[in-house]
């Protein structure tokens, strides 16, 4: 234990470069550097704000000079229709809590994209969501046919798409052998990354067509995929290597089931899939933000230690993990709180910045967090995109 603690500590140190190492190191989910350079950042922010205010006032004056436009925009504000948001994996945990938080406002219609219709219906009912605020549609992310069928049915439904939340995930920490998706990809990466990759690519047009004031694509990430944090240094660590396994199709036959080509490890596969999620969000941002105005974002919602994500872990872990996170790391958040956080990333008018990985501090205030070196590697993001495109049949 001491040895691994020490060696992990060394590896953190090695990864960074002097001051950078301090800046990039997060402890308990909050960047250490965040505290150190708050002063510095707030100075920059202040001057940026000054600048915005100046530009803003010019814009405001223009608006006053064109009363017709002004009236039109006021009119639009008054009649702002309900937002339409698709949330994958909304039948439990974070997805359900987010659906509930959004539905409760009365301003959103939530399309719960779930693999188990009955479970989703029961979950929505027991969360107290009223019928007019949600629709359940079938989606099994571990089958690309199902993803395509979902997209077809969604398009036929005629509903607009204002926000898409890629939230569903599986975690197989105790599996000795890999399991596979319908197309034969290792299950965690196949579901968490490839299923969502195809889904979001196929729904880009619909998002782009939305006339909602702020359209967004949100892909849930996590701290454990980020090796610039303590949590990300608990073995096995995420690492995509040179993507040889992914390029080979993750089928465990003529290629490894792991992205980096190594031996199967369920916990690592999950963490790798989260890196892919965070890289994909950034690649979307680079390719589409300017042209479409869509906001692309990822987040670490906090450690929601009680969700179904840990259903396959050993009972001892499931018993000890919540008190460990509550009392020792203090990284714990309730499902309700995490749902409010994600709901803000969906709907808060102040969280429109694109390309951001959001996290929250202890007072539940959001901040733009730093991703690890690998999770922000531009070259790797492009490669993951290109290889994934081939695997899901888009290229
Ligand atoms: C792997 O094991 C499994 O092999 C794999 O199959 C998969 O499950 C994977 O990530 C999932 O885990 C990881 C394993 C070993 O971790 C454990 O088994 C520990 C389980 C922890 C669960 C909770 C423990 C509870 C403890 C007691 C709580 C009691 C409750 C309390 C109530 C409270 C009352 C008040 O992991 C290891 O190998 C251990 C090594 C851990 C390494 C940690 C990494 C550290 C790195 C870095 C150091 C940096 C230093 C900075 C420090 C700053 C300090 C100020
Ligand atoms: P849950 O297991 O509670 O929720 C996961 C959801 O994904 C469930 O609704 C599940 O459906 C669904 N799902 C799984 N496989 C598929 C599939 N093949 N097709 C469609 N839906 C599927 O876990 P969480 O709420 O904790 O996880 C939600 C997100 O939060 C994940 O992206 C996870 O990585 C992330 N996260 C979680 C953290 C935590 O501490 N819990 C921390 C950081 C990030 P079903 O109900 O049918 O099983
Ligand atoms: Mg971790 C320092 C804080 C911290 C935080 C915020 C998390 C979050 N974890 C922390 C620390 C530690 N964890 C330490 C010191 C240990 C060794 C005792 C530890 C262990 C541990 C295990 C075995 N942690 C875990 C596991 C899991 O199986 C979970 C996992 O890796 O799932 C992939 C997990 C998690 N710890 C977290 C979070 C958020 C998770 C789970 C989920 C996720 O990343 O999506």
From TrEMBL:
The keyword Oxidoreductase applies. It is an enzyme of class 1 (oxidoreductase). It is found in: Plastid, Chloroplast. One of its GO terms (molecular function) is protochlorophyllide reductase activity. Keywords: Chlorophyll biosynthesis, Chloroplast, NADP, Oxidoreductase, Photosynthesis, Plastid, Transit peptide. Belongs to the short-chain dehydrogenases/reductases (SDR) family. POR subfamily. This is NADPH-protochlorophyllide oxidoreductase.
């Amino acid at each position: 234990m001491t040895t691994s603690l020490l060696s992990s500590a060394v590896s953190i140190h090695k990864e960074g470069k002097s001051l950078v190492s301090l800046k990039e190191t997060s402890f308990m989910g909050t960047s250490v550097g965040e505290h150190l350079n708050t002063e510095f950042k707030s100075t920059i922010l202040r001057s940026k704000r000054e600048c915005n205010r100046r530009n803003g006032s010019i814009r405001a004056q223009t608006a006053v000079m064109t009363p017709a436009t002004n009236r039109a925009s006021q009119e639009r504000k008054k009649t702002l229709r309900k937002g339409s948001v698709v949330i994958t994996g909304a039948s439990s945990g974070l997805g359900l809590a987010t659906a509930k938080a959004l539905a409760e406002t009365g301003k959103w219609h939530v399309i719960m994209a779930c693999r188990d219709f009955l479970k989703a219906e029961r979950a929505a009912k027991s969360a107290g969501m009223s019928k007019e605020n949600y629709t359940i549609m079938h989606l099994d992310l571990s089958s690309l046919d199902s993803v395509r069928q979902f997209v077809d049915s969604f398009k036929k439904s005629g509903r607009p798409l204002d926000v898409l939340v890629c939230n569903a995930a599986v975690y197989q920490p105790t599996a000795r052998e890999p399991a596979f998706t319908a197309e034969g990809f290792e299950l965690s990466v196949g579901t968490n990354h490839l299923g969502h990759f195809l889904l979001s690519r196929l729904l880009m047009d619909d998002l782009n067509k939305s006339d909602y004031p702020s359209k967004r694509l949100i892909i849930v990430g996590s701290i454990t995929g980020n090796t610039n944090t303590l949590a990300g240094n608990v073995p096995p660590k995420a690492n995509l290597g040179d993507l040889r396994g992914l390029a080979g199709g993750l089928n465990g036959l003529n290629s490894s089931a792991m992205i980096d080509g190594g031996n199967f490890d369920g916990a690592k596969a999950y963490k790798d899939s989260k890196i892919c999620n965070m890289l994909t969000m950034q690649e979307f941002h680079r390719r589409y933000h300017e042209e479409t105005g869509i906001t692309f974002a990822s987040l670490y919602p906090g450690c929601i230690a009680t969700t179904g994500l840990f259903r396959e872990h050993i009972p001892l872990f499931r018993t000890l993990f919540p008190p460990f996170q509550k009392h020792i790391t203090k990284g714990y958040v309730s499902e309700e709180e995490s749902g409010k956080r994600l709901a803000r990333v969906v709907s808060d008018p102040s969280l429109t910045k694109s390309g951001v990985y959001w996290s929250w501090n202890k007072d539940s205030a959001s901040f733009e967090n730093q991703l690890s070196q690998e999770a922000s590697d531009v070259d790797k993001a492009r490669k993951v995109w290109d290889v994934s495109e081939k695997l899901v049949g888009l290229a």
